[in-house]
Structure formats: C-alpha cells, structure tokens
C-alpha cells in the first residue's frame, strides 16, 4: 500500500506539474503571438471543447474504473466493449451538437472563425475518446505510466509548435493551432495504446446488461462532470457574451495561475478514486472517513504555502506571463486564489461520493453549485464587470464547501476540523517519519 501511494502519487503530481508547466509556457507565448481578442477566442474555444469532452468522458470513465477494479476477468471484456460503444455513441452526439450550435456560439461571442475551429476539431473527438478509455483501463489496474506519457506528449507537441512560431516569428492562425491539437491528440492516443495494449481486451458482442449497468451509474457521473466543467468555465463563457472575448482572456490568465494551487488536489483525486472504490467494497465508513479527512489535510498543507506565495508575488507573476496588456489580471488573481482554499473539500468529497456509489448525490450537489455560479455571475458581472466573475468564483467556492460539508457529515460523519488537524500535523510528521529517520540511519552507518 505505501508503494502504491508513493509511486503513483509521484507520477500523478509529476503529470500535473508538467501540465501546468507546459500550460504556462504556452500561455507565455500565445499572449505574445496572438492579440488579446484572438487569445480570448482561443480561450472560449478550449472552454467549449473541454466541457463537451470531459462531460462525455464522465459518462463512462468512473464506471469503467469502478467495475474493472472489482470485476471477474471474464466480465472485463464485456465492460470494455460496453464502455467503448457508449463512448463512441456520445462522440457522435457531440459532433452533431457542435455542428448545430457552432454558428450560434460564433454569433454570441462575435467570432467569425470559431465555427470553423469546431469543425476542424471533430476528428480529435474520436482520438480523445479512445485515449480516455485506454487511460482509464490502465488506471483501473492501478498504473498511471501510460497516462503520464500520453498526456505529456500531447502537450509537448503543441508547445513545440507555438515555440517554433514565436522564435521564427511565423504568423499563427487559430485554425492552425486547432490542427496541431488534433495531431497531438492522435499521437497521444497511439502512445497510450502502446503502453497498455496488454491490458486491453474486448468482446465482439455488446453485453446489454453491462451496458445498462454502466449507463445507469454513468448518467449521474456524466451530470457531475458536466456540472463541474460548467462550474469551471461558465464564467469565461458569460464574460465572452456579456462583455467581450478580451475580458474572457484576461480572466482566463488569473484562472490558469490559480489552477497551480489545485495540482495536489487533482493528483490526489486520481489515485484516491480506485483505492476508495476498493475500500467501499471491503471496509466500512470509518475507513472512508479517515481517507477523506487525511487526504484533504495533506492537500491543504501543500496548498496554503502556494497560495501565500502567489498572493505575495501576484504582480510579478502576471507581468512575467502576460505583460502590461493583462494588468487587470493581478487583482483578479488575488480574489480567485482565496477560493482555492475551499476546493479540496469539494474535489475529494465528490471523489468519495462517486467511488462509494453515491454519484446521484454528488450530481445534485454540483447542480446546486452550478446554479449558484450562473446566478452569481449574472448579477455580479452586470454590477462589477470583469471583477464580478472573480467575486462569483469566491462566493460559489464557499457555498460549495458548505454544501459538501453538509452531505459528507450526513453520510459519512466526516468532520472538516479533522482535516485542519491533519494539515497542521503534516510537516511535523514528515520531519519525524522521514528526515529524522534518515538522520538516524546516517549516524548508524
């Protein structure tokens, strides 16, 4: 067990760090090769694609991991086939949806090119569907290496292209950036297949029983994922329609820097889900309670120093990444950082609810949060402009914390104060268990 947490924790944190590092490099270059209006269009394109793709993945990925970790080998082929069919069906529906609403979104955001960007990306939807399924199969086998390599390659290819354009001063069109995205997803899919082909096994027949079981579980995780993605991107979309594409780009820079704080939470959620799924099947609520409180405490202990550093150096960070064109992002960053301190409670809470079969409850919880975000954005953006989106983010983070706290207390008797205790104890325990032990070993030698 310790090896599982240490090895996979390192791999997932490394992946999150690479994601943020490559993302920051891309951001640094894109704001210099694109105009603020073009960058705002790129932000809105990515936000839309992310919502659709991740929501689609949410229909099957957690069900796939959950059932593969606890099923008999004879059922694994049926599970994989049922998941693949559902994934491809959703990909077809998303393709139809993009073809139907692309023009309308372009008019809403006053962007003539975004519809053609959606059309170009349709090929990547197929690649990403296969990529996500293969990564989930690997995760269900408690391995994350292929996931790490495929996602790193995907980001590195895109980054290499924008660096080339920046150094050679090659004019960059948004459609060209989309084409590179399609190519990078295809390469990532091939890498994932090469890393996990021994674990991939399918049945030639679609099993209706497993298909129904996966869909019934996934329909709520689909809603959870869709609500979660909307909660994270709806503010940028609303800024694009209520103010301008440039406002979306300015706010996006603050959000992307704030996402650094969520690296420990995202990494922990990835390795927590398969482990808590097993625990739900073999152990009781006491173990789940401890797992949640301890994981949130560790995340808080890591997050708080990061938040303090970013608050203190926010001006330097924004000027370095965006330059003088994005001066407003400094104050926006300081507001959004405060909301990050509430995110571990909701992120890990959602993971625990899904892994213990309470995805329906998690769905309703996120519906409440999404409603709060939409309503608060409508009110606060009208009142405060671009800063209204930041105030809305802070308000909704706190409301999400309160809602999650209520449901977790009711279902698992979880006490959020214990997480604070574990956070305070994290660094003394680290020194005592590892540094002091290492010092003693050196003396014995």
From TrEMBL:
<dbReference type="GO" id="GO:0005886">
    <property type="term" value="C:plasma membrane"/>
</dbReference>
<keyword id="KW-1133">Transmembrane helix</keyword>
<dbReference type="Pfam" id="PF13440">
    <property type="entry name" value="Polysacc_synt_3"/>
</dbReference>
<feature type="transmembrane region" description="Helical">
    <location>
        <begin position="39"/>
        <end position="59"/>
    </location>
</feature>
<feature type="transmembrane region" description="Helical">
    <location>
        <begin position="118"/>
        <end position="136"/>
    </location>
</feature>
<dbReference type="InterPro" id="IPR050833">
    <property type="entry name" value="Poly_Biosynth_Transport"/>
</dbReference>
<feature type="transmembrane region" description="Helical">
    <location>
        <begin position="361"/>
        <end position="380"/>
    </location>
</feature>
<keyword id="KW-1003">Cell membrane</keyword>
<keyword id="KW-0812">Transmembrane</keyword>
<keyword id="KW-0472">Membrane</keyword>
<feature type="transmembrane region" description="Helical">
    <location>
        <begin position="298"/>
        <end position="321"/>
    </location>
</feature>
<feature type="transmembrane region" description="Helical">
    <location>
        <begin position="79"/>
        <end position="106"/>
    </location>
</feature>
<feature type="transmembrane region" description="Helical">
    <location>
        <begin position="386"/>
        <end position="408"/>
    </location>
</feature>
<feature type="transmembrane region" description="Helical">
    <location>
        <begin position="179"/>
        <end position="197"/>
    </location>
</feature>
<feature type="transmembrane region" description="Helical">
    <location>
        <begin position="12"/>
        <end position="33"/>
    </location>
</feature>
<feature type="transmembrane region" description="Helical">
    <location>
        <begin position="217"/>
        <end position="234"/>
    </location>
</feature>
<feature type="transmembrane region" description="Helical">
    <location>
        <begin position="148"/>
        <end position="167"/>
    </location>
</feature>
<protein>
    <submittedName>
        <fullName>Uncharacterized protein</fullName>
    </submittedName>
</protein>
């Amino acid at each position: 067990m310790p090896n599982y947490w240490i090895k996979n924790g390192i791999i997932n944190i490394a992946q999150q760090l690479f994601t943020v590092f490559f993302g920051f490099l891309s951001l640094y270059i894109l704001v210099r090769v694109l105009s603020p209006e073009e960058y705002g269009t790129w932000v809105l394109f990515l936000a839309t694609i992310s919502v659709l793709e991740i929501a689609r993945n949410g229909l099957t990925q957690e069900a796939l991991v959950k059932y593969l970790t606890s099923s008999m080998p004879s059922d694994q082929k049926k599970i994989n086939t049922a998941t693949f069919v559902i994934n491809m069906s959703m990909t077809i529906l998303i393709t139809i949806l993009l073809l139907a609403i692309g023009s309308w979104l372009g008019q809403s955001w006053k962007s003539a090119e975004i519809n053609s960007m959606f059309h170009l990306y349709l090929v990547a939807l197929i690649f990403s569907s296969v990529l996500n399924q293969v990564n989930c199969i690997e995760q269900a086998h408690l391995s994350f290496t292929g996931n790490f390599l495929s996602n790193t390659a995907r980001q590195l290819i895109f980054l290499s292209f924008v660096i080339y354009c920046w150094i050679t001063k090659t004019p960059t069109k948004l459609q060209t950036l989309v084409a590179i995205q399609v190519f990078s997803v295809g390469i990532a899919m091939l890498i994932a297949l090469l890393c996990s082909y021994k674990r991939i096994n399918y049945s030639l027949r679609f099993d209706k029983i497993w298909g129904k079981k996966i869909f019934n579980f996934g329909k709520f995780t689909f809603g959870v994922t869709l609500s979660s993605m909307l909660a994270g991107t709806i503010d940028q979309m609303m800024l694009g329609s209520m103010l301008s594409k440039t406002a979306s780009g300015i706010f996006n820079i603050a959000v992307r820097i704030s996402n650094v704080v969520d690296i420990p939470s995202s990494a922990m959620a990835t390795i927590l889900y398969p482990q808590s799924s097993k625990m739900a099947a073999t152990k009781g609520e006491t173990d789940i309670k401890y797992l949640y409180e301890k994981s949130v405490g560790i995340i808080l202990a890591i997050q708080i120093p990061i938040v303090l550093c970013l608050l203190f150096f926010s001006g330097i960070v924004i000027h370095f990444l965006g330059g003088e064109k994005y001066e407003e992002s400094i104050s926006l960053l300081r507001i959004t950082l405060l909301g990050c301190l509430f995110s571990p409670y909701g992120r890990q809470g959602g993971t625990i609810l899904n892994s213990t079969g309470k995805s329906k409850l998690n769905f309703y919880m996120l519906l409440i949060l999404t409603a709060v975000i939409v309503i608060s954005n409508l009110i606060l953006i009208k009142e405060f402009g671009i800063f209204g989106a930041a105030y809305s983010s802070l308000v909704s983070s706190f409301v999400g914390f309160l809602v999650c706290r209520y449901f977790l207390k009711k279902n698992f008797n979880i006490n959020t104060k214990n997480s604070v205790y574990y956070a305070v104890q994290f660094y003394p325990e680290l020194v005592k268990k590892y540094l002091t032990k290492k010092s003693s070993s050196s003396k014995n030698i």
